[in-house]
Amino acid sequence: MKTTINITLITTLLFSVAISCKNQTDKKKETEEVVKVDYLNETKADFDNRMAWWRDARFGMFIHWGPYAVPAGIYNGEEIEGIGEWIMYNAKVPIEEYETYAKAFDPQKFDADQWAKLMKYAGMKYVVITSKHHDGFALWDSKVSQYNIADFSPYGKDILKQLSNACKKYGIKFGTYHSIMDWHHPKAQADTYTKNREVNDEDKEEFKGYLEDYLKPQLRELITEYDTDIMWFDGEWVEEFTHDQGKALYQYVRELKPSILINNRVDKGRQGMQGMNKDDADYAGDFGTPEQEILEGTVSSDWESCMTMNDTWGFKSKDDNWKSSTVLIHNLIDIVAKGGNYLLNVGPTAEGLIPEPSVERLTEMGNWLAINGEAIYSTDRLEQNFKQGEDIRFTKKKGSKTIYAITLIKPESVLTLNHIKPEQNSIIKILGIDNNLKWEFSKETGLKIHVPQDLLSTWNEKTFAWSFKITGKEI
Ligand code: H79
Predict the structure, then answer these.
(1) What does the domain layout of the chain look like in residue ranges?
(2) pLDDT tens for residues 130-156?
(3) Are residues 422 and 470 in contact, defined by beta-carbon separation less than 8 angstroms?
(4) Which residue has a Cα nearest atom 20 of ligand 1?
(5) How many CB atoms lie within 10 A of CB 78?
(6) CA distance linking residue 162 with residue 154, whole number of Å
(7) DSSP 8-state assignment for residue 212
(8) Among 124, 145, 282, 373, which residue's Cβ finds the most Cβ atoms within 10 Å?
(9) Of 384, 456, 378, 466, nearest to 420 (Cα)?
């Protein structure tokens, strides 16, 4: 009797242990599933945290570089209209012929260290380089396809590896521009874009294969082996690519590197060149991408204007239409006052050189930023007024009472600011100049800052803008 009870007891015990073990495995499975984060529904706190460095950075370098630098805008002796990196499409260059440019791409003068040094000097905090533009050519030693700089071109070395290493050395964040559209891949746009054929259902089916077996493995390489900080997509407008694919792509990239930043061209929300998303759906992407334009005013979401210094992204030998340093510096100030970032492009030559006019302008920007950088980096826009009239912009140092009024032209001997109230003991100075300026404030007349004549007379064409530093608040 006793024994029977004991056996029953033991059996019951064993049985419950077994059940509890099973429950634990189930729980474990459950938690494993829960651990798969839905990156499309991030909390605001997580998003702000991830965006923090980029929001402080303000100024980055865009680099468009690839086989298109070889023809440099000229095909069969003729100048081809339009942006240089589109020559394959614009001149309808057959794929095999375009490949001869890749075969001739041998940038012996490329010096990654010098490029990163230039970024640093220019005051740029990050770079975004074309890992692959629409022409499909890869600037790194990819295992996914031989159509890359290390395997296909005489140069034989990995450009992205050199640049990402140099950027690490100089503290520059490294980002990659990656085109979803691909004029070279047979399952992507090789037979539609260059040959002007309509997209059919079979193309759409094939495109899925390209996304899974080609694009995603490429992205995986860029993230795992080059530790890219920004995935900057483009060419998302192609008919084959869908909103659902965009969302899945966003999730895929974030899973590989949770802290990475991804522009809004990962999805289908962009409203043309203005670059911000439509609000008719839940589009993926961390920031808007105005192209060759600056937003008219402020918006509540994050954005970055990408712009060229002349009229092309990829190098064109005949394009001399350079914007002045004044325009470029004023663009930076305007963008920052409106709460955006400036991604300013260079298009290196096939030899591997950043064109001299770009270097000159970046140097002047760096000179200005060396003095005025505190009015640009780690700033917020003012809540009410990002500007006063056309020639004054405002910024505010994050987490402080410091406001900067940046004048784009030489001010009058009395600078009047209508919406700034200084603290009583505020010292007001122009960055880079020692003088404490006299000022007075009243509600009726605003803030009046007196700029002495001897100071005004130092303004010259290389001044570009003055940043008045004030402790106070916006009223
Ligand atoms: O990489 C540089 C250019 O080669 C690329 N973007 C910059 C950063 C660029 N791609 N296209 N364009 C510039 C112009 C093309 C515009 C259009 Fe459209 C594509 C017109 C119609 C489809 C953009 C997307 C505007 C509307 C939808």
Answers:
(1) 44-379, 387-474
(2) 999 999 999 999 999 999 999 999 999
(3) yes
(4) 272
(5) 9
(6) 17
(7) I
(8) 124
(9) 384
Distance CA 139, CA 66 (A): 7
Q: What is the DSSP string of 381-420?
A: --SS-SEETTTEEEEEETTSSEEEEEESSPPPSEEEESSE
Please report which helix (H) or strand (E) contains residue 18, including its range.
helix 2-35
CB 333 within 8 A of CB 297: no
Phi first, then psi, for residue 143 (nearest 5°) are -95, -10
Ligand 1 pocket (Cβ < 6 Å) reads 64, 83, 85-86, 234, 237, 272-273, 291, 306, 313
What are the Cα distances from residue 111, in Å, to 108, 114, 137, 353, 426? 8, 5, 20, 8, 47
β-pairing, 466-474 with 420-422? antiparallel
**Helix, strand, or coil (residue 125):** coil
Does 3.40.50.2000 match the CATH number of domain 44-379? Answer: no
* Residue 420 predicted with pLDDT over 90: yes
Identify any residues that bridge with 467 across adjacent strands, giving them in sequence order.
406
Domain 387-474: give its CATH superfamily. Answer: Golgi alpha-mannosidase II (2.60.40.1180)
- Using the atom order of ligand 1, give the atom closest to the CA of residue 234: 6
Contact 82, 133 (CB under 8 A): no
Pick the closest to residue 467 from 336, 309, 342, 294 (CA basis). 336
Distance 326 CA to ligand 1 centre (A): 27
Query: Looking at the DSSP assignment, which residues form a beta bridge with residue 440?
Result: 448
For 294-320, the three-class secondary structure string (H helix, E strand, C coil) is: CCCCCCCCCEEEEECCCCCCCCCCCCC
In this prediction, residues 161-186 reach a mean pLDDT of 98
**Residue in this structure with the two tokens 């056309």, named with its chain if needed:** 390
Distance from the alpha carbon of residue 234 to the mean position of ligand 1, in angstroms? 8
| CA distance linking residue 138 with residue 66, whole number of Å | 8
User: Which pLDDT tens digit goes with each residue over 248-292?
Assistant: 999 999 999 999 999 999 999 999 999 999 998 899 999 999 999
For helices 216-226 and 243-256, the axis angle rounded to 10 degrees is: 30
The first and second tokens of residue 97, run together, are: 């012929």
Among 223, 240, 221, which residue's Cα sits nearest to residue 231?
223
Ligand 1 centroid–CA 96 distance in Å is 24
The model carries a pTM of 0.93
Distance of CA 57 to the CA centre of its chain: 10
